[in-house]
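Re: Re: token formats

Sure, here are both.
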Amino acid sequence: MAAEVCAAIDVGSYEISMKIYELGARKGVRELDHVRSRIDLGSESYATGRLGTGHVNEICGILNEFCSVMKTWGVTKVRACATSAVRESRNRAVVLEQIEKRTGIRVEILSNSEQRFLDYKAIALKGTEFEKTIEEPTAIVDIGGGSVQISLFDRDKLITTQNLRMGVLRLRERVNQMGIGTRKYAALVCELIHAQLSVYARMYLHDRVIPNIIIVDDYISPILQKKKTLIESGLIGEEHADLPQGVVSAERFIGFLASVPTESQVSNARNLGIPLENLPLVYISGLIIKCIAEVMHTETIWAPGVTLCDGIVYEYAQKRKVLATQHDFEQDIIASAYHISGRYKGNRKRSELIGSLSLGIFDCMKKIHGLGKRERLLIQIAAILHDCGKYISMMNLGESSYSIIMSTEIIGLSHRERQIVAEAVRYIYMAFPESAEEESRSEMDDEMRMTVLKLTAILRVASGLDRSHMRKLTDTDFHLKDEELLITTSTTEDITLEKELFGTRAAFFEEVFGVRPIIRRKRGMK
């Protein structure tokens, strides 16, 4: 394919940045330009829950300047994304409409899980360096203005991901409201951080040692990318000058932070090569890293220097088949779902069976249902989480499962996709809404409703094939013939229960797809 020039824009909490890239089959992804403009949206949004006219005017002015830069480079594709500052604003719909009318740029709001997943994909651009790091227990610490995302890896697998509301701007505003002096500043910030970290460590670390931390942020990462600055500031010694770019020891990093308050702010800013106004945010980000490193007993900190813009273009390059994917991100989503299921005492063997049966039906019915690869992943996630609600209530399994799924972040899924999974699981056990009143409570549009209907119909049949929970139908084939879905099993076990209680599930499936599922034994089986 011919080289394509595209732009990625991040409307963040503290600045708006744009990167311009060239995409080509030969050279892959090449960064051409990076422009940034400071705008403190987070302070107003987190404090008042709104973005005022002044900030909207600033955003439009910056984006119009970016449009001029894009025209110079001949950009043909642009994706602009906003994160927590806009996401948490109650007037976000008005803000986005104003931006589009005045700049021609449509800004989409990323859910927290979508944002963090793009940052995670950006790290994966580092290829073998990333894969090698996550072979050992590793935490990706993604520090934003409003919150911090901590994702734990072990043996290449994503174990869990949690969002903590202790972002750099949010912490700064809370401490500034106290009106304290510089001597107590670090101690109070660390107290606020540890208040959340202590709960996190108790629930998810269980005294586990995490030797590696990977940092994604807009504050410390640019500093750790400058090897000369690291040597001059003592973050690495001359004898460690051959360390990979962005890598420092946790011990040296913590020691460096302890020395910062003894220097003047002007001296610190000059030594670190940053604007004086950025120093408080850099310091708070550093304290977050320090506290996490201490709790996890970390040895090495790596800041790969990636940004959300890199993740945006990485995802686009994947879709355009410009970049070959080395890491299997879908497996991370599935591993995360299994971890959630385990937390709520889900039956893994039954989940695996229902998942296998669901995928068999899904693939066999492909021409009928018209769903794609993404929906195939969603039905896998739904099968894994199908019984998580039993942890809360055996009587209200559908509603309890729905509540757990909607309250639990699944990295890599958008809010809408998570809702599809939650609704599909809920209606395995409950009647699907038919009246206008029930429909309005479900908050599903027509497209989502049809997707949920189809996934639910498949999941009901799959779970019905293991009604006894004894995994009798592990050896099962699916074949579509005329208006029948033939479910053929070679089991020698008694499947009277499955057959007798299959009727209502088969009827719902037939109503949705116009195809009747029928259970049969293979010839020669009794």
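Second one below.
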Amino acid sequence: MQTSQDLERKLAAIDRRGYPAYKSLRGRYDFRDFVLSIDHVQGDPFAAPSRVSLMIPAEVAGFPRELSAEPHRRVALEDTLCRRFAAEAAHVSFNVGGSGKSGLIATSRPGPEVLARSACEVTSAGITMRLEVGFPAHGRTVDARALDTMLFELIPACAERSLLADTGALAAARAAVELADDQHAVRCALKRQGLVAFVADGSILPRASGASSKPLAGALPFQAPESMALTLDLPHRGAVRGLAIRRGITLVVGGGYHGKSTLLQALQDGVYNHVAGDGRELVITDASAIKLRAEDGRPVHATDISPFITNLPDRRDTRTFTTADASGSTSQAASLMEAVEMSARVLLIDEDTSATNFMVRDALMEEVVAAEHEPITPFVERARALWEQAGVSSVIVVGSSGAFFPAADAVVHMECYRAFDITQRVRSVLAAHGMAAEAHTDGEQVSWEHVRTRRLVLDCGRSGSSQRGRRAGASRGRGGSRGRDDRRPAKLKVQGLDGFSVGEHAVDLRQVEQLVESEQTAALARMVRLVLERGLLDGTRSLPQVVELVFREVEQRGWQALDETGAPGCGLALPRPLELAACLNRWR
């Protein structure tokens, strides 16, 4: 390993030369208290910034091992350190001038969700912080003196103020880890007590606006109705009371603008932990919960939608249904069956974003259009079977149809953002109308288990990202290999939360609502590329097996598994396996 003095000599030697001279700086340098690594050098001052990382040994950083002893604690500590470094970097970024991105010092700036990120990794060896640095230039002439200031003064100062265990850093880390302990305890309680979700009293569910994730100032704190309340004993906060949504079928009803969708939004975001001050710190949902909606125009690949759609006029086999342009009802049926395939335990559904003919079919319509001419079996007739036969619960927001009342185990009424349990009232109304509970089930036994083991028909030979990718897949054989050949990887293009492309092919993620950061999309793009490069879609594995292989590799090799250079940089955040499956199912 080279020394910091070697780096100073290199900088002096390239001052005022052409910008490509910066390439000579790549390498690792020992700064005594940390190692600075220049992993990638940008091509010019207007290109994507250079990638630089710092590795601070554990004994220098000084954080007690107990703060990262368990996975949920480690992620909370990494998140805290990332936020601290990002705040410090923002104060010194562009302190040196120049062309283009000259002087930039930045790393990931997390939102309210606590996610595992490539920006910061904590291991037994120490803390690795990855950042973007704009190597300074005037025009395209190297300004080595300015880079010397950045690498020897500004960046080390940011690290010292944010990544060393002084009083402030220790206090922030302990607070984050203790909150993570409480959140983990709630997640364990969900499993023990048969719950879908828990919404703590005092939670602030509304957001400031549709474009802001900040809590709405002056919003009414959530309060659970007594009949649905549960008190959990958490390791740090002690007794916490809140709404317990139990497994089965739960309806959320109420007038428009009274908080139904706000509650559902909080539940769908509750698959992630949130930072203190977000208002939803203890809104915790089963991590496998998936939000379903209609997605007109999405592709569907060999999916069994026969529990909901059969007897199509064109006689297509709905047990292995494929289309490049699904309708609203077909897309929602496909998404539901894909969720079952991935062992999702909870479906979150909002009437407003669903296909009406997929959800319900009233008696008058049945009189007008005979059942034998209607290929759709609506969800209302399958919801109980899905719960009783497959163990998949549903939380459904409804505002215009009472068709789901007979199938419901619990009904929450939202009124002026207050929650009321009206389950018994609904049952009384049903009795008064001569309607029995579970009236909307057809009693038909549906085989759900085979869906979890269906095999993909895609393969790298037909769906690879380019001709180059197809040749690479063929050279590795049916099962693929861990090695890489000398071909360049397929080019990635990430479009925020909207989707991404790998080579010539794209994935549209605009309706995959539980992605919360573009860094997750960037990670998904790399995961899909990994799937294609390894030839994992070769027809011998089910989709869950493919997804499991990718996440196992990331767990074993870290973020390096997703970067061909072994230096992934900042800018990646871990998605859920469900979202990787969603990408592969929407692959065009």
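The first strand starts at residue 2 and ends at 3. The first helix runs from residue 4 to 14.
- S.
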